[in-house]
C-alpha cells in the first residue's frame, strides 16, 4: 500500500502523527534510563551511518543502516512509552516506515537538507523526552512529521515531473 499508492503514504503519516505524538508524550513521562539510552543508541547509529555516507563508504549498506536506525528510533520511543500496544504497532509498521523513509529522504535532499537535519530533529525530540517535557516533545514530533509530509509531497512531485519530462 505504501510502496505503490501515494495516498497510502499520507495515510501512514496521519497514523504516525496519532501514534508518535502519543508515544513521545508517554515516553517523556515514563522513560527509564535504559529507555533513554536505547533511543540515544539509535541516534548514534544514524550518525555513524551518515558519516559513512558522507565519506562514500559502501553507500548502499550505509543508507540501509541509516534507515534501519531511523525506524529503530521510533520503535525505541514507543518502547520507552511503556505502552506495549504502541510498541507492537511500531514493530508491525517497520516495513512501511522503511519504505516511506526512502521517499522522505529524497524530498529532504530536494529541500537542501542533509541526514544531519533529521538527526538534529531526533536529538531535539530525545532532549525533550529526557527533560520530561511531554508538551515540547509532542510539539517537536509534530514538527518532525510535518516536515516528513512536506518531504514526501516534494519527492512525489519530482517523481511525477520526471515521468512527464
Going by helix content, strand content and strand pairing, the class is mainly alpha
The percent range for strand residues is under 5%
* H/E topology pattern: HHHHHHH
Cα radius of gyration in angstroms: 15 Å
Average pLDDT over all residues = 90
Q: Could you describe the largest sheet, including whether it forms a barrel?
A: none
Number of helices: 7
Contiguous runs where pLDDT drops below 50 for at least 5 residues? 161-165
Shape: globular
Helix share bin: over 70%
Our measurement of the CA-to-CA distance between the termini, rounded to an integer number of angstroms, reads 26 Å
DSSP strand count: 0
Write up what this structure looks like.
The protein has 165 residues and is an all-alpha fold. It contains seven helices and no strands. The protein has helices at residues 6-30, 33-55, 59-80, 84-92, 94-110, 115-131, 134-164. The chain starts with 5 loop residues before the first helix and ends with a helix.
Structural key phrases:
165 residues; disordered C terminus; globular
Structure in a nutshell:
Helices cover 87% and strands 0% of the residues. It has 165 residues and is mostly helical. Residues 161-165 have low confidence and may be disordered.
